[in-house]
Amino acid sequence: MVRMEQSTAVGVAGVAERMRALAARWPARDGVAVFNRVYLAVTEELERRIARGEFPDRRAATTLAVLFAERYLAAAGRAESGDRPPACWRPLVEYRRHPGVRPLQFALAGINAHIGHDLALAVVDTCRALDCAPEALERDFDRVGEVLVLLEERIREDLMPGPDLLEVADPLTHLVGVWSLERARDAAWSAAVLLWGVRELPRLAEEFTERLDTGVGLVSRCLLTPWP
Hints:
Blueprint lengths: L1 H24 L5 H21 L6 H23 L9 H6 L7 H28 L7 H22 L6 H12 L3 H17 L4 H22 L5
């Protein structure tokens, strides 16, 4: 038991360390770096909560957290190597150095890609790894979601332009106000359950995954609308 707990703790710590390595290579203003800082904070908080025993199933929570992070790290790796990342990540990669896009937009676009697309696939990955149905992960999924919702609130507080930029903040507030992490999380759960249900129908599962990827990418592109 102790050995398993040590290995799972190293798993979450390991993906966090890889995010720190990415942060060291990217300029702070880089759009992907903005999201990376946000996601690193999420991962560190998840690691602390798992260590404190706040998740019903420590092994399941750790597996989900690691496989979830691997989806982002794979996309970041493809972008770094010059390969095309999944469609949901392409807008953030394309706009990462655009001077008219605000840090809040970068953060939310990354969260949208990661929650809207990657989370659903990570749930399915976890079900396969643990040989269980999504329902067995639902409580841990909800606990992860609680951390993400708290983080969204912090992002909006920390990255929203101040009163001296009201002419920017007004339309920006409208833009980001139409997106909700809670709704994205609920949609991700529904997508995961659907994908698990059609796992024996690979062509249908592939088509649904592709459309999910494209649709989430479209939302990210809207979130990254440049402002003067």
